C-alpha cells in the first residue's frame, strides 16, 4: 500500500517517521492522542481520490486532517490510520468581484481567504481566532461558526459549490455560476458538517460579502449575567449587527495577568458589540445602549486602532487558555433563557467534582453558542466531570455541538440531540457512500 501511495503522491509526501506521526496524532487541545501508520499529503483532487481508493482496497482506515484545530478530537486516529492531509491543496483562485465569490483549495487557510477578499474590497463571512491555521475545508466539514456568525451565519451559508473526493475514489464537483441553482439534491449541504465521514472536501466555491464602510465597536461591563443576556437578545436582531461576544470577567482578568491585555471596563461579565454599515453607527449604538443595565460606561472604538484594542480582549482568550495545561473544553449550544442557570449550575458542578478547577465561559451570545473551558482539570479527573456536564447541557435544553462538531470526543452523546430515526438515517447515508466505514471511522458514530 505504501508503495502505491508513493507512486501517486511522490515518495517525499508519504511519511512514516514516528516522531512526525506522533505529533500528528494528538488533538489540538493536547488531551487526546491516537496512533497512525503513515501521513500522506496529496497535491491535487485527483491524487486525493486515488489515495482513498488505494486505502479502501487495502482495508486501511483514513483520518482526514486540515489545520488540525479541532477541539473534539476530530482529527485523532484510532485505528493505526493513514493520515490524509489537505495541506498541499492551498490554491487561492482569483476573486470574482462581480459575483462576489472565490474558488479555493480545501487546504487554504482562513487568513489566506480573508486577505484575498480584503484585497478585492470584500470580506469573507466567517472569522475565527485560529484563522492563521484553520483551513476552509476543515471549517466546512464541521460547519464552523465563529465571531461573525450573528451577521453572516455559519460556514455552510458561505459555501456555494464544492468538489469532494468520495470514499470509492471518484470525484464529485458541484459548481454553478448562477447565484441560485435549485437543480436536484443540495449535495454541498450534505458534505458541509459531515466531519469528513462522507468524503474529503478538496475545493470550495465561497461566497464573499461587501465590506461595510463604517464600524463601531464597544465593550460593555455587566454585574449580572441575566442583564447581559437580555442585552444580547436585543442586539442580535438589530440591522447592522456584526459581532456579539460574551466574555467571562474571570477570563479577562487572566488575560490581563498573563498577557497584559486588560479589560477596558469593569464587570463580572463583558459584552463586545460591533455594528457595521455604510453610514456612521456611533449614535445608533449609543441609543441601543441607553437603558441597558451596564456596570459602568462602555469603552467605544470608532477608529481601526481602537477597535483592534477592544477586539484583543476577546481574541486573547485563545492564547491564555493553556496557562494551566490543556483545558477541558465544552462546546455549549443553549437557549438564551438557559444561559444564566447553566453558568451557575456548571460552576457548582465543577467545584463539586474537581478541586481548584477554574471555569471560564465565553462565546457567541447572539446564537447561544458558548465555549466553557475548565482549567486545571487533571486528565484522570476528566471522566468524572465530562458525563455530568453533558447531562447538565441536555437538562438546560442544549445541544451536543454548536459549531465544533461531534468529532471523537462527543460521539457517545449524539443521541442527546438526535432521535433514533435521525441517527439511523445518518448511518444509512454513511453506509451508502462508505460501505466499509474506513473514512474518518472514529468520528461522529460509535
UniProtKB/TrEMBL annotation:
Annotated FAD-binding PCMH-type domain residues: 32-211
TM annotation in the entry: none
SUPFAM superfamilies found in the cross-reference section: FAD-binding/transporter-associated domain-like (SSF56176), FAD-linked oxidases, C-terminal domain (SSF55103)
Keywords on record: FAD, Flavoprotein, Oxidoreductase
GO BP of this protein: respiratory electron transport chain
The keyword Oxidoreductase is assigned to this record: yes
An example Gene Ontology molecular-function term: FAD binding
Cofactor: FAD
Superkingdom of origin organism: Bacteria
InterPro entries linked: FAD-bd_oxidored_4_C, FAD-bd_PCMH, FAD-bd_PCMH-like_sf, FAD-bd_PCMH_sub1, FAD-bd_PCMH_sub2, FAD-linked_Oxase-like_C, FAD-oxidored/transferase_4, Oxid_FAD_bind_N
PANTHER family in the cross-refs: D-2-HYDROXYGLUTARATE DEHYDROGENASE, MITOCHONDRIAL (PTHR43716:SF1)
Annotated family: Belongs to the FAD-binding oxidoreductase/transferase type 4 family.
Protein name: FAD/FMN-containing dehydrogenase
Amino acid at each position: 500500500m505504501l508503495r502505491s501511495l508513493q507512486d501517486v503522491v511522490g515518495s517525499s509526501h508519504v511519511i512514516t517517521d514516528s516522531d512526525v506521526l506522533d505529533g500528528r496524532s494528538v488533538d489540538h487541545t493536547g488531551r487526546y492522542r491516537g496512533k497512525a501508520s503513515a501521513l500522506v499529503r496529496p497535491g491535487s483532487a485527483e491524487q486525493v481520490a486515488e489515495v482513498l481508493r488505494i486505502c479502501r482496497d487495502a482495508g486501511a482506515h483514513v483520518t482526514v486532517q486540515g489545520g488540525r484545530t479541532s477541539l473534539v478530537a476530530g482529527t485523532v486516529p484510532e485505528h493505526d490510520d493513514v493520515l490524509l492531509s489537505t495541506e498541499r491543496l492551498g490554491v487561492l483562485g482569483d476573486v470574482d468581484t462581480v459575483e462576489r465569490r472565490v474558488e479555493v483549495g480545501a487546504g487554504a487557510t482562513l487568513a489566506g481567504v480573508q486577505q484575498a477578499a480584503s484585497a478585492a474590497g470584500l470580506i469573507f463571512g466567517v472569522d475565527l481566532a485560529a484563522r492563521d491555521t484553520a483551513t476552509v475545508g476543515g471549517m466546512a466539514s464541521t460547519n464552523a461558526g465563529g465571531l461573525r456568525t450573528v451577521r453572516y451565519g455559519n460556514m455552510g451559508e458561505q459555501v456555494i459549490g464544492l468538489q469532494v473526493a468520495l470514499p470509492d475514489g471518484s470525484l464529485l464537483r458541484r459548481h454553478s455560476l448562477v447565484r441560485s441553482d435549485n437543480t436536484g439534491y443540495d449535495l454541498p449541504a450534505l458534505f458541509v458538517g459531515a466531519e469528513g465521514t462522507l468524503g474529503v472536501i478538496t475545493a470550495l466555491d465561497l461566497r464573499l460579502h461587501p465590506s461595510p464602510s463604517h464600524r463601531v465597536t464597544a465593550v460593555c461591563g455587566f454585574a449580572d449575567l441575566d442583564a447581559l443576556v437580555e442585552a444580547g437578545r436585543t442586539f442580535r436582531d438589530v440591522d447592522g449587527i456584526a459581532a456579539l461576544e460574551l466574555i467571562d470577567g474571570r477570563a479577562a482578568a487572566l488575560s490581563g495577568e498573563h498577557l497584559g491585555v486588560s479589560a477596558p471596563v469593569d464587570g463580572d461579565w463583558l459584552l463586545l458589540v460591533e455594528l457595521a454599515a455604510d453610514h456612521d453607527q456611533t449614535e445608533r449604538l449609543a441609543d441601543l445602549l441607553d437603558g441597558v443595565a451596564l456596570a459602568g460606561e462602555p469603552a467605544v472604538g470608532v477608529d481601526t486602532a481602537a477597535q483592534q484594542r477592544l477586539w484583543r480582549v476577546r481574541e486573547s482568550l485563545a492564547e491564555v487558555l493553556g496557562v494551566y495545561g490543556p483545558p477541558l473544553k465544552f462546546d455549549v449550544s443553549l437557549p438564551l433563557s438557559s444561559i444564566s442557570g447553566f453558568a451557575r449550575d456548571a460552576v457548582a458542578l465543577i467545584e463539586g467534582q474537581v478541586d481548584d478547577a477554574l471555569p471560564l465561559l465565553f462565546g457567541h451570545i447572539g446564537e447561544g453558542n458558548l465555549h466553557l473551558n475548565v482549567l486545571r482539570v487533571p486528565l484522570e479527573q476528566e471522566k468524572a466531570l465530562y458525563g455530568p456536564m453533558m447531562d447538565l447541557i441536555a437538562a438546560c435544553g442544549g445541544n451536543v455541538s454548536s459549531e465544533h462538531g461531534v468529532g471523537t470526543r462527543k460521539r457517545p452523546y449524539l443521541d442527546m440531540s438526535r432521535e433514533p430515526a435521525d441517527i439511523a438515517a445518518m448511518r444509512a447515508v454513511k453506509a451508502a457512500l462508505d460501505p466499509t466505514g474506513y473514512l474518518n471511522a472514529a468520528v461522529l458514530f460509535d
